[in-house]
Amino acid sequence: MKISKTPSAPCWADLSTTDTDAARLFYEGLFGWSSRVVADPAAGGYGMFRLGGEDGPQVAGVGPVMNPQQPPAWLPYFQTSGVEAVTSRVTGNGGRVVAGPMGVMEQGRLAVCQDPAGAAFGLWEPLEHAGFETVNEPGSFCWFELLTRDGKGAVDFYQSILGWGAPQRPFGEGGVYTDWTVADEPFGGMIDMSTGNFPPEVPSYWNLYVAVDDPDATAARCAELGGRVLVEPSSMEAGRFAILTDPQGAAFSIMRFAD
After folding, report:
1. DSSP string for 53-111
2. By mean pLDDT, which of 34-38, 69-73, 123-127 is the weakest?
3. Ordered structural domains, the chain, with CATH
4. Residue 152: phi, psi to the nearest 5?
5. Sheet of strand 228-236: strand arrangement
6. Would the pTM of this model clear 0.90, i.e. be above it?
7. Which stretches of the chain are DSSP H helices?
8. Pick from 199, 87, 187: which is nearest to 149 by CA?
9. With 60 as the cut, is the pLDDT of residue 3 above it?
10. Residue 40 CB-density burial (10 A; 0-12 exposed, 13-18 middle, 19+ buried)
11. d(CA 33, CA 52)
12. Is the pLDDT of residue 45 over 90?
């Protein structure tokens, strides 16, 4: 996945959490990120994560949950040059607009949506804030994966609202994996949970991957910092990965891609 200013490509990710101070300390310790809260009170306590120090590239955002019942979670954002038009397509194709469209100071316009199976995602129309300043490097995001209860419906939905390609390839024992592409370039994928051994209580959601040099050491460090290892470091054709949560319960994955 490359940094892309192309509409429909992933352009940002942020964490909504019940304890922003604790979350910042955790991710600083895990990935070497630095963080700073936006000084403007209108930002509502939102902060930026940077890679490699205060002058490093922006890699993600962090802010408080908007209501007490909202669980901590990472949210992917996909770029658009017209957020109102895309949200109209969201509702027209069976999805739901949870918040927005709205302006965010001079930074851009956003909307938060759910696809028909309930997976949440964001739309971002950039102004001053263009989004990621680096990807694929260790400590930055590298893959965006949808786990869904309705694979065919998800392909129809995201192709209709964002125009993604969705080629398939063999996966596991007799399964298939869908790659999401923009301009024929893969940036993420999809697993249909209805065809696998997923617990029925797991809802549809977007799983975000951070690139790391050593998944085993990073998973061990996650546990030391108070997080949890949901899936122990494992190898597959694409590389070595693990699924983790931070101390507040937000899930994310780490990956070292094979050469």
Report:
1. STTSPEEEEEEE-SSTTSPPEEEEEEE-S-HHHHHHHHHHTT-EEEEEEEEETTTEEEE
2. 34-38
3. 10-126 (3.10.180.10), 141-257 (3.10.180.10)
4. -65, -40
5. 168-171, 175-182, 185-192, 141-148, 205-211, 251-257, 239-245, 228-236
6. yes
7. 20-31, 83-92, 151-162, 215-224
8. 199
9. no
10. exposed
11. 6
12. no
CA 173 and chain centroid, separation: 27
Please state the rounded mean pLDDT for residues 206-213.
Answer: 98
- State yes or no: pLDDT of 53 exceeds 70: yes
Residue type at position 146: L
Q: Please tell me the chain's helix, strand, coil percentages from 3-state DSSP, rounded to the nearest 5.
A: 20, 45, 35
Over pLDDT 90: what percentage of the chain?
A: 80
Q: What is the pLDDT of residue 202?
A: 87
Note every long-range contact of 4-9, with CB atoms under 8 Å and residues 24 or more positions apart, other chains counting: 4/79, 4/182, 4/183, 4/185, 4/187, 5/79, 5/130, 6/79, 6/182, 6/183, 7/79, 7/80, 7/81, 8/78, 8/79, 8/80, 8/162, 8/163, 8/164, 8/182, 9/78, 9/79, 9/182, 9/187
Structure letter (DSSP) for residue 201: T
For 20, the token pair is 């922003």
